[in-house]
């Protein structure tokens, strides 16, 4: 297997754990000579396919994860302010991502980082069309609404959701490293160990 | 707050992640001058209270976690062999735990470690009365069936399940460190950081 195989990384613009992971995955990959392919998806679609619900749909679990989002961000040194409106619909932000990614994957990532940070540090409501259009314009996309209304980018996002389900993705962040699946921001240390040993089954103990 | 407050640790004898955590929690606590109070519970009761289901109840998630159990054990340097019969009923093993713990908490822990290792490394079926009685006899409990059939220990386990639900426990392993809840074997690094800083909100970045 080519050791330079890219890492696949699935995220939803409304997932706090995916936002945290988006802040470390490329740096971690680069330390091991890897690139990362980002995939914006709609978690609602993968939840439905796996007959799962969001952790925040369960009151007791919601209370825990709302605390854990901020704590996990602090642990990674990532700024985090719990958005007042949460979770939100993210199909328009995702369609913009795929539009940009089609011509330049790095530009797509820049948009993703811009939008994730806007939502998770300043509470910018990515589900509100005028707010999203304004954020996109500031980023350098003057015609954002025309893009996310375009049937083509709607279809691309649908295909990407289907591809995620086919790949076994049932939550976010989700990673595949040389065929090995990892679910969750909390799998960072295991991913690092996997990359260091090129997914050898003998992972060293880490305290 | 007294910095020597014990850490509370909830587990089910049928939880792989709780088994892995049982192998590191006391050593980690000891490095910070802490003791650990173990609580054997029935995850089915906490799942029901939180309207949750086991991750292995969802086909796609089951496939992932079955792989992640073994990988997470390797990552911690803990021996693990997926039991053929899984998950299993664990009320009898838990009643024995509470019987022993009532007179000697350390002896209760020894039984828990014995039974968890028997199940997760040799596939010893803790749900089978004669198998469990035999394991208990080898451990030094000659009258195990009389204990787990005793209404008193049934009531104690019920109370402990209720207490866990009241404490917010909705999965295993679950920990409370100075009032801060942590869910999952994968929160080890955050617990370590919390103990090092006595739960200061400023957790340092860890790569």
Description:
Residues 199-207 of chain A have low confidence and may be disordered. Chain A has helices at residues 16-22, 25-31, 43-49, 59-76, 91-103, 105-122, 129-139, 144-148, 151-166, 188-196, and strands spanning 7-11, 36-40, 174-177, 180-183. With 207 residues, chain A is an alpha+beta fold. In chain A, a hairpin with a 2-residue loop joins β3 and β4. The first copy, chain A, has a single domain, classed as 3-Layer(aba) Sandwich (Glutaredoxin), CATH 3.40.30.10. A 4-stranded mixed sheet of chain A has the order 2-1-3-4, sandwiched between helices. Chain A has 10 helices and 4 strands; from the N terminus they run βααβαααααααββα. The longest helix of chain A has 18 residues, at 59-76. The first copy, chain A, is globular, with a radius of gyration of 17 Å. The A-B interface holds A 49-52, 58-61, 63-64, 67-68, 71-72, 74-77, 168, 170, 181, 183-184, 186-187, 189-190, 192-193, 201-207 and B 49-52, 58-61, 63-64, 67-68, 71-72, 74-77, 168, 170, 181, 183-184, 186-187, 189-190, 192-193, 201-207.
